[in-house]
Amino acid sequence: MYRTLRTLILLFLLAALTVVPLAAQDAPNILLYGGNQDIDNIDPATGENYSINAALVSLYDALFIVRGENIEPNLVATWEVNDDATVWTFNLKPEARFHDGSPVDAAAVVYSFNRTIELSGPPTYRWAGITDASSAVAVDADTVQFTLTQPFAPFLGTLSQLYVVNPAIVEANLGDDFGQTYLRTTAAGSGPFVQGRWEIGNLYEFTAVEDYWGGWRGDDHIDGFLWLIQRDSATQLNSLLARETLIADTPSGSDMGRIDEDPGLTVVNESSIFINTLKMNNQGEFTSDINMRKAIAYAMNYAALPEVQDIPVQVLPGPTPLNFPGAVEGLDVPSYDLAMAREYLAQTAYPDGGITLDYVYVADFPREEVPGLLLLEGLAELNITLNLVPMLWPDMVASCADPSTGPDIINIYTQPAYLDPDAHLYNQYHSAQWGSFNSCSFYQNLEVDALLDQARVTGDVDLRLELYAQAQTMIAADQPSMWMYTENTVLGVNDCIKGYVYRPLESLSVLFQDVWMENCPA
Amino acid sequence: MNLRLYLLRRVLLVIPLLIGLSLLTFTVSRVLPGDPVGLAAGPQSTPEIRDRLARDFGLDQPLPIQYVNYIAGLLRGDWGQSLYSRRLVADDLRTYFPATLELTAVAILFAAALGIPAGIVSAIYRDKFPDQLTRLIALFFVSFPAFWLAMIFQSIFGVTLDLLPIGKRFDVLIPPPASITGLYLLDSLLRLDFRSFGIALSHLLTPALVLSFGALASVTRITRAAVLEGLDKDYVRMERAIGIPDRVILTKYVLRGAFIAILTIIALEFGWLMAGAVLVETIFDYPGLGLYAVESSLRLDFNPIMGITILYGIVFSIINIATDIAYGIIDPRIRYG
Fold first, then answer.
1. What is the complex's ipTM, to 2 decimals?
2. pTM above 0.90, yes or no
C-alpha cells in the first residue's frame, strides 16, 4: 500500500512539474518591474513617494511632466505669468480626456487643486503660504488661472505634482473623507495607463490606454507593466538574472558587478539629487557654537564615504549637489583635517573636548549608521564622545519639532520636490521652516532668510541664481550641517528595454509611457 | 467525559486565553515608543491632520475605552481598519492568512515526509553510519539561517538551473485560480484546473522546502527517540521471538505507538513555522501573514497587530484541540476528561 501511495505521489508531482514550462510568461509586451516600495495610496492629494509617483504619472496627467532633466507642459498648451510672478494663466489642451471620455477642463484642474489644498496632504507643502482656497479659478473651459497670495517664481516647477482627478467620479464616491478612501486604491484619471489587478503589498498592474489622448511616442509602446513588490535586493537581483523581471530598482551596490557581467543586462548608475546631510542643532547646548560645528565638520572623513557605503555615492561640495540648478562650485567647506578641527575646538568652551554628543539615525539602516561610525572615529581624536542613537523614523521626525528636543546631530536624507534651488534651500535653511525634519538644524541667519525670500519673488532667472549663490556662500560659512553625499541611482535594466531616460527628480523609477521593449525574453 | 463535552470545555477555555492575549498585545503595543499617527499621516502633515486622524481612529480616547471599543467591535465582526493603509483588517487577514497557511502546511508535509523516514532509519541503524549521517544533515539544515538558505536555494533553482520561479505565489502574468478557500492548491483542484495547480505548486516548492528545514531536525530527532523507545519494549521482543518480520513490527506496531510523540512535535512545529515564516516570505516575496505582521509592527499599526495576534491565538488553539482529538484516535486507550 505504501509503495502504491508513494508511486502515486511521485507521478502527481512529476505531472505538476511538467505543467510548469507551459506556464511560462506568454504576454509579449508587458514590462515586469521589480520595485522595492509599495504603492499603497494613489490619491494624488495625499500620496507621495517614488513608487506612488510612478503610479500617479501613469494613471493621471498633471499640468506639467518631468522628462529627463526638464519639465515639459503636459495638460498645458501655453501659459503666461505676470511680472511679479503672482498671476499664472494656463491654457489647457482641449483634446485632453479622462478615461471615461469626459474632458479634462479648467473646472477639473480647479477642483483637483482645491481638493489637494483642503486635504493638506504631503504634496501640499509646495503651495503652503502662497495659495489659498480662492487662488485657482477657471476663466473658461480651457483656461485656468492661479493668483498667488505672494509672488513665487518657482511655481511652475511645482505643477508636475498637481495631478488632475475626474470630479464626477470623486463626487460620486465622496464618502465622509472627500473621496480619500475611494481614491486611495482606485484611480479617476486621464493618464496613459489604467489599473488592472491591484494587490496591495504584492503587485500592481497597469494597462496601456490604446487611444490615450496624449498619444504615444510610437506604435511599439508597451501594452502595460507590472510593478512587482520585491523587498529584498537579493530577490531583485535573482529575478533580473532569471529574466523574471526586466528592471530592478534597488539592487545593492555589491550586486552591480553581477548585473554588469551578464551580457543582456546594464547597470544604470547616475548621480541623483538624493542628498544626505548630518544636521547639527544650531540651538543646542554644544553645537550652537559655530566653532564647535566647524570642529566637528573637520573631524569627518568625507573621502572615506564612497569606500564604506554599500552603494555608489558622491561627496557633496557644499549645500547643493553640482547636478542641481543653482549649485555653486568652489565653496569653502571642510575636509577631513584634524589639525583644523583642533584649532576650532580650541576656540570653544571645551578646548580639550570631554563632551558627549548624540548622533541620531534610522534604526537598522546601515547606510545611516556608517557615517556615524566615521564621525565617532574622528571625534575620538578630539576627546569628544559620539553616542550613536538608533531611532524609528517617526520618532526622529517628532524630535525635530522643537530645538529643545532636536538631537545634537541627526542624519537626514532630503530630495528636492522640484527642479529649482528654492525646493532644496528654502525648506532646509530658512528659519520659518523650523519644526520639519528638513530643517532639523534649527539654523537661523536673517540675511539668508532675506535672500531666500527675495529669490522666491523674483522672476529674473539670473538675479535669482545670484541670490541663491550668495545664500549658499553664507550657509557654507555658518556650517549648520555637514554636507555628506548624494547617492547614485542604481538600476538594473535588461538591454531589451528601450527609450529609458534618467530623471534626477524621479530617479528610482521609469517614465513607462516613453519606453518600449525589443525582443525581450518571454 | 465524552468527546463533545471535552470539545466544549476546550473551546470555552480559548475565550480567556484570547482575552489575556488581546490585553497583553494591546498594552505592549500602546506602551512602545513611537508615533504611528505621525507615520501614517506623513512627515509633511500638519498637527491638525494628525489630530483628525487620531480622532477618526479613536486614538484620542483613554486606553481602557480604546480596548473596550476594540473588543466590542471584534464581537460585531469588525476587526478595525489599518491606520496606515485604511484597509479593513478583516480583508487583509482574509487575503494573507490562506497564503501563510498553505505555505506552512506544505512545509510541514515536507518536514514530515523527510523527517519521519529519516528518524526511522536513524533509529533502526542506531549509532551506525546512517544514524550519524542523518544527524549531520539535520544539524546542517537547522544551523543555517533560513534567509540564507532561502537566497541560496533561490539562486540555485531559480537562476542557475532555471527550474523553479524566483518568488511570488503565482505566475504574475496569469490571474490566480478564482478563490473558494484562498488556498491556491486546493482551489485549483476543486476547479479541476491542473495548470493552475502546477503553477501554484512550482511557486510553493522552494519556499516550503526552505521553511521545512526549521522543523526537519526536530521531527527527525523525536521520531528517532520515539521509535527507539518502542523498539525496546517487551512486546517487540516477543513479536520478534515468534517470528514476525521486523518491517511489520515497525510499521504496524512500533510506529503507531510512536506517533503520539511525532504528532505532538508536528503540531508544535506547525505553529512555530506559521509564526516564523516571515523571513521566507520576505525573500520569496510571498504575500503572507508574516510580512503583514512585521510591517504592521514596524508601523505600530494597532488594529492589524491586534488582529494578527488574535488570529494566531485562534489558530494555535485549533491546532492544539485537533491534536488532542487525534491522540484519542491514534490511541483508543486515551479518554477525554
1. 0.84
2. no
